[in-house]
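EI: anyone free to look at a 269-residue chain?
SC: sure, send it
EI:
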Amino acid sequence: MALYDGTHVHGMHVAHDGPRQAPPLVLIHGSGSSGSSWGPITPALASRYHVVRIDLPGHGQSPPAPSYDVPKQAARLAEALDELGLRPVTVAGHSSGGYIATALAEQRPDLVGSLALISSGPSPDALLPQPVLLRVLIDPPIGPLLWRVRSDAMLRRGVTAVCNRPVDVPDDLVADVRGIGYRTFRTVLRHNGAYIAERSVPARLTALDLPVLVIFGAADPRWDPSSAHHYDTVPNARVEQLPDVGHFPMLEAPEATSELLLRFAATGR
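SC: here you go
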């Protein structure tokens, strides 16, 4: 049974689920989200693993940081994992959380034993036109004004706008999203874009000798679903596409997503 415990390490909120003596599985959320986004699949994962859910700086229960540069966030995460004494770990990143996970593996191959990317766009040219609601919330001049008056219903619509299946958005995720600042979110998006523009994710992974699992929704409205096959060029990588699933496989297809992660964490395939 999952045993939840939470703490702050190097300025990041870290939630622990499952037995501490089990192999560690680190989960990194995407932009504008939090560790709560993994909630629907955490019980299944925690039945076999020590699940470590990270709230990245400025998200969830973690305070803002001086920099949201992807490599710097990865370095901070490495310090947290060192302090927790966790190595080697299987790391799973959702969306831009996959960029933090990739940067962590680049910097600290001694920490990362295997890497799973969920809905992580490979390069800027794979980005699709964003849903209207998200564009309105993000772009000035209307974005900063709407950001201050977001209702719970609007926050839920922001999440479901990138889903293809009906989902129940967890209440704790809604509360965490409400706490994210507009400037923080815009800054994070800018740094994420810079990271994949400098070098694509498949190119970065090709330089690493790691087992890689890529999970993509076949109906992702945020990233071109066909771009998942850019990862086919990565040695030791397996690409799985989930039919009728959008950008949030953990919310839209929790059973299939957890099964893929459990198998990968156990076998590297």
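EI: The beta strands are 5-9, 12-17, 24-28, 50-55, 89-94, 112-118, 212-217, 237-242.
SC: 👍
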